[in-house]
Amino acid sequence: MRPLQGRDGRELVTTPQAAYSLGMTTDAFRKWARRRGVTPAGWRPNPNRGQALALWDLADIGDKVRKQCAA
Predict the structure, then answer these.
(1) Rounded distance, CA 50 to CA 61, Å?
(2) pLDDT tens-digit readout, 2-49
(3) Strand runs (DSSP E) across the chain, as ranges?
């Protein structure tokens, strides 16, 4: 299976990876994303048969961070 790619060609990342990129916990990242209207770019089946894992586009996250820093 080929990894899914985001708008800038980088692989999509899981919620823990996205949270780590901003220095947040996963719960804090989900709240941050919800407040800013960032939605997962895709989904991947959970290897442990649970809820599907959200995949995030780092380009979307970067856009929101840059807008936040510019304000």
Answers:
(1) 25
(2) 678 888 888 999 999 999 999 999 999 999 999 999 999 999 998 888
(3) 13-14, 42-44, 53-56
